[in-house]
Amino acid sequence: MGIYKRGAVYWARWTEDGGKRWQSLGTGDRREAERLFDELRAGGQLTMRSALSEWFEHQEARCKPRSIHLYRIVRKRFTAMWGELQPREVTTRVVEEAQETLLKLGRGPTTINHQIGIALGAIAWANERGLTDAEPPRWKRLKVRNGRARKYLTPTELHNLLKTAKKAQWKRLETVVMLSLYSGLRSDEIVWLTWADVDLEQGWLHVRSKKGWSPKSSTSERSIPIAKELAAHLSRLPDDGKWVAPQSPGKQWCRRHLGTQTRKLFRAAGVDDDGPHTLHRLRGTFATSVLRGGGDLESLREVLGHSVLSVTAGYLTATSDSKRRAIRGARFAS
């Protein structure tokens, strides 16, 4: 048996039942690694620190950067809360305490449910591979307030948002807002959109893979017609040969920082809390506008880059509500 360093993390190596086994110790600190190694030699059980670390390394080689970013947050957060526990010690009560802690930190119920589900999935992963005989506990998800939150902005909210985005303080976000609102692009698609992807003469935006980034799925690689409002805006922008919506000239947005600034813009514009303060809500506004204008669901699916029609159909709810109101207000001859 022994420990060795692979990259920034120490690993333990030993022989068991005539075969060699390796286990990440989940730390770059040699003293901590030696302590964990001593636990293994003494027959110590797998800890959540090690389970989360091994699970993360398994996922890191198989998932896209966007998922890896989330998994890294989950590993760090639950290693801090559960790291010294054994998987069997993660009980329903422990999960409830984690929910209470995260609520106090200001995390939303949806985020908490999602991250706890991922963390408990690491226990299931370790169980499947014989690293532990424990199974994830039964737990109750937090209730999500306003689970059917409005996915689009009202005309007044949209007017205020566009007006605010033109102010000097928020000017760098104006193109981001226009691209999301008039083409339905996702935030990472906006971050990676270059002038080589824009054909103003023919009126198309092209979402395609490039070095360092690839779209969410194969159906996300697509071409989107440029609306006249967006074409007018893009034609006024300086073409620096690289990013269409940079944070500053020649500098690409960090997706996380863009999300933070977007939320601040929404609040500055006075957009209420009936829905998320994210660019995805502008994507929803785009989809709702297309359907209200008579667009068909299949064409919208292709424009949004959805893999299946059922996801696109989620935007039908808003238009269905307006149709119900219209019928209720109708007056028929008797």
Report on this structure:
The protein is mainly alpha-helical and 334 residues long. The chain folds into two domains: 127 residues, no CATH class; 171 residues, Intergrase catalytic core (hpI Integrase, Chain A, Orthogonal Bundle), CATH 1.10.443. Helices cover 49% and strands 9% of the residues. It has 14 helices and six strands. The strands form two sheets. The chain has a three-stranded antiparallel sheet with strand order 1-2-3. It has a three-stranded antiparallel sheet with strand order 4-5-6, with no helix packed on it. β1 and β2 form a beta hairpin. The protein is elongated. The mean pLDDT is 86.
Structural topology:
Blueprint: E1 2-6, E2 9-16, E3 19-24, H1 30-41, H2 48-60, H3 65-82, H4 92-104, H5 109-128, H6 155-165, H7 174-183, H8 187-191, E4 198-199, E5 204-207, E6 222-225, H9 228-235, H10 255-268, H11 279-292, H12 297-304, H13 309-312, H14 316-328
Antiparallel strand pairs: 1-2, 2-3, 4-5, 5-6
Helix pairs in contact: 2-3, 2-5, 3-5, 4-5, 7-9, 7-11
